[in-house]
Design brief:
homodimer; 479 residues; nicotinate phosphoribosyltransferase; 6-stranded parallel beta sheet; 17 helices; 37% helix
Amino acid sequence: MDKNLTMLTDFYELTMANGYLKNGLADTIAYFDMFFRKIPDKGGYAVMAGVEQLVDYLKSLHFSKEDIDYLRSKNCFCEEFLEYLANFKFACDVWAVPEGEIIFPGEPIVTVRGPVIQAQFVETMVLLTINHQSLIATKASRMVRAAAGRAVMEFGSRRAQGGDGAVLGARAAYIAGAAGTACTICDREFGVPALGTMAHSWVQMFPTEFDAFKAYAVTYPNACTVLVDTYNVLRSGIPNAIRVAKEVLEPMGCRMKGVRIDSGDITYLSRKARQMLDEAGMEDCKIVVSNSLDEFLVRDLLAQGACIDSFGIGERLITSRSEPVFGGVYKLVAIEDKDGEIIPKIKISENVEKITNPHFKQIWRLTDKADGKYRADVLTLRDEVIDDTQPYLLFDPEHTWKRHLTTNFTARPLQVPLFEKGVCVHKSRDIEEIRAFCASCLDKVWEEVARFENPHPYYVDLSQKLWDIKRRLLEENSR
Amino acid sequence: MDKNLTMLTDFYELTMANGYLKNGLADTIAYFDMFFRKIPDKGGYAVMAGVEQLVDYLKSLHFSKEDIDYLRSKNCFCEEFLEYLANFKFACDVWAVPEGEIIFPGEPIVTVRGPVIQAQFVETMVLLTINHQSLIATKASRMVRAAAGRAVMEFGSRRAQGGDGAVLGARAAYIAGAAGTACTICDREFGVPALGTMAHSWVQMFPTEFDAFKAYAVTYPNACTVLVDTYNVLRSGIPNAIRVAKEVLEPMGCRMKGVRIDSGDITYLSRKARQMLDEAGMEDCKIVVSNSLDEFLVRDLLAQGACIDSFGIGERLITSRSEPVFGGVYKLVAIEDKDGEIIPKIKISENVEKITNPHFKQIWRLTDKADGKYRADVLTLRDEVIDDTQPYLLFDPEHTWKRHLTTNFTARPLQVPLFEKGVCVHKSRDIEEIRAFCASCLDKVWEEVARFENPHPYYVDLSQKLWDIKRRLLEENSR
């Protein structure tokens, strides 16, 4: 995925950048936060993803001669600006929550500080990259939880929204706990294990289903999972699978690895199939199911007593079908004056939930020392430190009379630096490391917050200092 | 977009291909159809899109040494197969409905004929490419129709599912009638006009809203559209826009091009804004609105009497949020025996609507000679010809007693060749040509079929010959 995505930007980022330059604001330092307001599917938590790709994008930012020529042809950019782009050198500081961490609404999951031209320019790809992968990782996490220890395999490339949707979506799903993907290039590029069984067409290419299974078994004696619903699962598919196991595989010293059911009443068929396989001495033969599954159907199938070892999930995972948008936004939160003093900025809105948290901030995560669970997050000014040797007064930023003096916790800042003055300081992590980190973070989320429906809201509070500044700005702006 | 997507394929395409080779089926000729079963959003028609990208993909199919080495490392492919891939030469025939044409469920919108290894292999990208762009084109077409002649601008890159989702989605939206896109690279790559206004951050970067508008007007006197909802639309935004028009633009001989409203009660605000602008002699100043719009909100706003000249539509277009999946499938419909005789194949299913139409087919579109509208489509065997100088007996393939002897029509085949024995015979079309073609096709769809809700189903019938073969196969398979 090494194509240059510099020009994958909203056109207004460029017209505004040109305008900043022409209006003497080129060197003004601005701070932008990316945050989201709501968790997809009314869930209780989201999973941060896409950081590695954001870093790749920012590292490779450059405008080719072709880009410059194209922009010149639009007749709206001055030559000084085009010159600036031709010599573009990324100079921003960038911080983000690490990939795989659990995130909540209102938190600055990415912060960019730098010359406003640049900090504004990167908006589109910061949002696109983090929105997309966080969406799929969050959805995958729900599905993996629903599967209660059984494998969830990502099978959705053919219904993905474009090639990157398939490949990076599969990557995000793996981070959040999927067992692998059908997408081959995602294995080659990122090391996400590529998995697969067979299509109905394989079965149809042979004179009989038995012939088709036999041919597959002979070809892949150690990795033979057969698709049993081309004709009739219980009358044909399972009996043929058993016959091939006995007549072909076992004489070779091999076992039938699995059967896949892709249609029909999965609960009924999987229970009957399990019984038939067990009676044939094939207790180790796994049952894989697929067919428009999501976290709710997975939960229902298991509640109904379906006998399933792993789930293949396609379109409802790779597009997050029930809620295909992660609504992250990118907002100006501060600028610096000529002396380097930070001037916080707020965006007012008639919709109270759309009002932004101003200033250059940090997210502090407070973890319970007793049970190791995440207790609450606090947004602070960047230079504040939460001293976890002392009790800390949490209060609800809306209903400020809700207060709680919390003790026995550890506090750590969530944002870590990715770039310092344009230089990458991020140490790239292996996908297995990110995946393990994600699992360990999710372990620390209370069950009440993690549940699918009506989750208990997790607290994201403001420090007293930040709250005071926000209130002052609100009052000044509503004169 | 020149990256090699050969390996963007489901892993099972490769394991099956290797299996076909090892089982002596490498040279067997297979026919696969892509078709879809349901129209997103319960709509009455869909728009074919993505053909140019499918052609690009098929033209550039090749396995690099890196690909081969990766595949060898999986320890499941034989050397003979890896050799085959290293010397891969695409040899299939491919036909498709032209991009921009109106399509309906059950129709083979793409057909691939060739050695089963190859025809099977391309499944993932045939589906991904056509599913994605047809989804967005179909959604965009609904939105453009809702806007009733007003411009619809695609503004969704930041919420797209990956970079290709943004860029190719914007392309598909334009084909279906969007006026342009915010996505700069889509302009540079495909010539889709890039559009944009300004972000709230522009307004916040200046001491006052007036200063921000003035700076923009001076920078872009001939293309000045200002965002008026950063503080208060009617008390601040519109008055400042008028003041800048009078004090800055008009003395330069220029006019304020537009104002954009991105929040609040759009109907109320746009009507009041229109009145204020008109009273200031700015009848030519356009009102652009945005904020989580879709076809239903667009229709409602206009029904409520909102004064709107154009719509900026983001996430609900670029992800087709209400229905983010175009469920196209790719099914084996025939093979050839050693004498080149076609042996039709059918996929049985307990779900009757999942049963496939067998054989190598053509789609014939019957157009009414009197009003020029599409009357019905008929799927035929590929070598059948519908003679439009004679009456033709249409009958419902499910309820065969529903019959209609149709006259006074013209008939034309919809599928056209893209590749002949692996050689591209498709003449690439300019995007403006595809867009104009799409508009002309949509004009021929009956209003009853095109409506948003409860559309009248369009007839897709089978020829008598095809129906007879399908019935015979069904009966043979349900012995």
